[in-house]
Write a structure and sequence with these properties.
With 243 residues, the chain is α/β, with parallel strands linked by helices. The protein has helices at 31-40, 63-69, 89-95, 111-120, 166-182, 201-206, 216-219, 229-240, and strands at 18-21, 46-51, 77-82, 100-103, 124-129, 147-151, 189-193, 211-214. The protein has an eight-stranded parallel sheet with strand order 1-8-7-6-5-4-3-2. The longest helix is centred in the C-terminal third of the chain and has 17 residues, at 166-182. Bound molecules: D-xylitol-5-phosphate and zinc ion. Zinc ion binds at residues 22, 47, 49, 80, 193, 213.
């Protein structure tokens, strides 16, 4: 598959993949240390899961926690809003230091407006599609997307098993994005979230993902010294190993 339109620039540390540890699986009592540890271990992005016990059956963290961790790292904070309604939280997270804000379009009454709102607050904007949510949600807002996040589990909890049908959906999303870029459109990053592990990250990247979120796979695998360097390097190597 041609990856010529791949939007993310390569770096020495991340030649073809951005790793975004999800702090949902971090030790919440030591969140500052945890985000510093993943940055030191080579993380590209902090993935920040916001759950409201309404859109999803769980409750996590909000803008004040985002603001609290912001000074601890330089890498972008990727706020994944699993909330309904969406819009009121956008300015609060932008002010709290979020760099990317994604939301589930089925939780926003006016998807186009929400995307514009996120960009107007200086953040990159994206939609998140659940396993059973069709890619057609992208159709009329392609020009307003900076990223698309495909859920490979049903949202609400860390540590769930990857849903294999996501691979075909990733390939199709990659094809649509590449066609959009080839026709002169802006870059759109393709992110995958849920059940990403050492044994499936290769397939996921080959299916077209630019950014892989991983929670339990990273935070559950600190080495004896408490570093995440080993697991992150392992994930990158697994991602780069041919099938
Ligand atoms: C699930 C969250 C994910 C989750 C991923 O609703 O959006 O970001 O933390 O965790 P793992 O990698 O353990 O599936
Ligand atoms: Zn997430």
């Amino acid at each position: 598959m041609s990856r010529s339109s791949k939007p993310l620039p390569a770096t020495a540390d991340a030649p073809s993949l951005r790793l975004a540890p999800s702090i949902l699986s971090a030790d919440f009592a030591r969140l500052g240390e945890e985000v510093r540890a993943i940055e030191a271990a080579g993380a590209d992005i902090v993935h920040f899961d916001v759950m409201d016990n309404h859109y999803v059956p769980n409750l996590t963290i909000g803008p004040q926690v985002c603001e609290a961790i912001r000074p601890h790292v330089k890498i972008p904070i990727d706020v994944h809003l699993m909330v309904e309604p969406v819009d009121a939280l956008v300015p609060l997270f932008a002010k709290a230091g979020a760099n990317y804000i994604t939301f589930h379009p089925d939780a926003s009454r006016h998807v186009d407006r929400t995307l514009q709102l996120i960009r107007a607050h200086g953040c990159k904007a994206g939609i998140v599609l659940n396993p059973a949510t069709p890619l057609s949600w992208m159709d009329h807002v392609m020009d307003k997307l900076d990223l698309v996040l495909l859920m490979s589990v049903n949202p609400g909890f860390g540590g769930q098993a990857f849903i294999p049908a996501t691979l075909q959906k990733l390939r199709e999303a990659r094809r649509r994005i590449d066609a959009h870029v080839a026709a002169g459109g802006q870059p759109i990053w393709l992110e995958v979230d849920g059940g990403v592990k050492m044994d499936n990250i290769g397939e996921i990247v080959r299916a077209g993902a630019d950014i892989c979120v991983a929670g339990s796979a990273i935070f559950g695998a600190a080495d004896a010294a408490g570093s995440y360097r080993g697991v992150m390097t392992g994930l990158r190597q697994a991602a780069a190993t041919p099938a």
